[in-house]
Give the backbone structure.
Amino acid sequence: MKKVLLGLLVFQLVTFTANAQIQKGSVLLGGSINFANSNNDQQRTSDLGSDRNTTSNEFSFDPKIGVALENNWVIGAMVIFKTGKSIMDATTYSSTNSSKEKLTNEQNAFGVGLFARKYFPFGDKFSAFGELNSGSLWNKNSSIYEYNNGTPAESENKYTEYQTNLLAGIAYFPKNWMAIELSTNLVTFTSSNQETNTIDYSNNSFDFGLNTSAISLGVSSFLNNK
């Protein structure tokens, strides 16, 4: 009985796959957005120590255009916009007095890249997909540090970042020409070289993005897809 049910399931998926395809020659117009917010509040447990609160938020938008070179294979170009802000407030207590400090960081980035996406239909309205994209981002970071309400110390840093992402997602097709997508980064590789007046350093990192802050919501339309 189990074998019969498994055979029927496979037959159903194969049948659905034939009906849910991105056809060769279709043009993809779409994009995705991501918003993440966090708040970390640390309270001292004795008369000494520090109270510290850190809040941060990030927003990104990635419009894309591509073409299906083969059924369910799309390659194209993308533009990347990112912005974020974090604020750290801390009060440190000693046996004689207390001190306050505040650090505000703002980041803005613009970039361009290329992507390749493969769709894996599993129903008449659903498809899983995997995507590999890579591009360059031009970043600008601004920081303001305040200590005991004194004169703020400001700094600015500009640098170029190279980023490659492997992501996976699922798409729902209410119409053959439109998809609502939910995706998450699986692996991100980042390489950057930063220079300031006092330091010059390079950074290479791998991130495994299986968390809510790595989830993006997107919408795509497919011109000429029947």
